[in-house]
């Protein structure tokens, strides 16, 4: 799929808006478990690093999305 510059910016703007809504106080009760990186040792998840090879959490995703230019 080949997306032009304006369309790409539009998609990035929409994604940023979506992340802002995820991180709002209105949705905090639903999203708080996904805000920070999982600490597998503290949670006793011995296989976590073997199963989840590229961990992602909302704050990290928002940071990556905020970088200019957007990097996939």
Describe this structure in words.
With 72 residues, this protein is mostly helical. It has 5 helices and no strands. The relative contact order is 0.15.
Oligomer: single chain
* N-to-C CA distance: 14 Å
Count of helix runs: 5
Beta-strand residue fraction? under 5%
Fold topology:
Blueprint: H1 5-22, H2 28-31, H3 40-43, H4 48-51, H5 58-66
Helix pairs in contact: 1-5
In short:
With 72 residues, this protein is mostly helical. The chain is built from five helices and no strands.
Structural key phrases:
about 70 residues; mainly alpha; 5 helices; about 55% helix; about 0% strand; flat; Bromodomain-like_sf; Bromodomain testis-specific protein
């Amino acid at each position: 799929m080949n997306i032009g510059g304006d369309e790409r910016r539009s998609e990035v703007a929409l994604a940023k808006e979506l992340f802002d809504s995820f991180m709002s106080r209105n949705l905090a009760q639903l999203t708080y478990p996904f805000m920070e990186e999982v600490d597998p040792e503290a949670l006793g998840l011995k296989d976590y690093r073997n199963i989840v090879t590229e961990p992602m959490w909302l704050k990290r995703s928002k940071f990556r999305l905020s970088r200019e230019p957007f990097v996939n």
